[in-house]
Amino acid sequence: MPRGNVPRQPSRSGRQEGVRHQKGPISKKAPNRVPSGHALPKRAETPPAKARAPKNISPRKTATDGYDPLAPERVRQIIAGLDRLYPGVTCALTHRSAWELLVATILSAQCTDVRVNMVTPVLFEKYPTVQDFATLEPEQLEPDIRSTGFFRNKSKSVVGAARKVVADFGGNVPQTMEELLTLPGVARKTANVVLGTWFKKNEGVVVDTHVTRISRRLELTKQEDARKIEEDLMPIIPRERWTDFSHEVIWHGRKLCVARSPKCADCGLEKLCHAADKTWSTVEIHPGAKP
User: Fold this and answer.
1) Who has the most CB within 10 Å: 19, 83, 174, 240?
2) Alpha carbon of 5 to those of 1, 2, 8, 11: distances in Å?
């Protein structure tokens, strides 16, 4: 063996230098140590799992749940209230025949019934029959109906309707919706007025500005188009009441439920009405009940 190169001998105690023994089981992973004076970082909280709503459980009801503005009992109460307020009312337009009613209804567009009733007596005295109107030119009729407004278009409609009645229906106003709608100037409103008032045929509901406004106030419809409003009203109003309901609502719109500042304190339907524009109310107001 070369001098000076002596191998290291094991310790007599059996312990090797540089090796430390610890009591108890040896941990495979040393614990994290945090220097004194430092706080442990907060562990991010795991959001709890979203609880599933149990089946067959209805959502919590609000104060307005259960209110149905189209409930049959409520509609019956509205009709009964109108009957009490306006017993026996009929069309406000003065007339003595189906033809006179047809002409008056055409003239009533964008015009008050009061004004039309001031014009028609003189008009029908000057032109007593439908044949007399049929021989006119629209320009000849214009001065007689000027005060009703839109007199040029109305003159064309009245003269055109007269010629159609004479030529196609033997001088008699037709009694069906389909035939009436072929006459110039006649739409469903005019046809419903003539059929319901003169011929006592309930073919539809007359929808004018009053019926539009009040039906929306009473939450019987949310529509604004006259045809769609009629489609909403026909299933909930008994057919035998279609014409009377229209006349009563029209009178109600003139007397109490006026467009500006309705007279709610005097209204027999006040407790059934939740309109947003009421001037006085004993019931809850519904924001959606708008004219």
Assistant:
1) 174
2) 8, 6, 9, 18
Find all residues with CB under 8 Å of 114, minimum gap 6, and list them.
none
Q: Angle at CA 45, nearest 5°, toward 40 and 48?
A: 160
Structural domains of the chain sorted by starting position, each given as residue range(s) with its CATH number in brackets: 72-89+206-272 (1.10.1670.10), 98-198 (1.10.340.30)
> Token pair for residue 241?
């009441």
Q: For residues 286 and 212, is the Cβ–Cβ distance under 8 A? A: no
The per-residue DSSP string of 241-286 comes to GHHHHHHHHHHHHHHTS-SSS--GGG-TTGGG---TT-SS-SS---
Closest C-alpha among 185, 181, 179 to residue 133: 185
Helix (H, G, I), strand (E, B) or coil at 11: coil
Q: What single-letter amino acid sits at 178?
A: E
DSSP string covering 205-247, please? ----HHHHHHHHHTTS----SHHHHHHHHTTTS-GGGHHHHHH
| Residues 226-254 pLDDT 10s | 999 999 999 999 999 999 999 999 999 99
Q: Which two tokens stand for residue 194?
A: 């003539």
Between CA 253 and CA 41 the distance in angstroms is 73
Element (H, E) at 159: helix 151-169
Contact yes or no for 211/189 (Cβ under 8 A): no
Model pLDDT for residues 156-185, shown as the tens digit of each residue: 999 999 999 999 999 999 999 999 999 999
Compute how many other C-beta atoms are within 10 angstroms of the C-beta atom of residue 280.
Answer: 11
Q: Per-residue DSSP letters for 127-145?
A: S-SHHHHHTS-HHHHHHHH
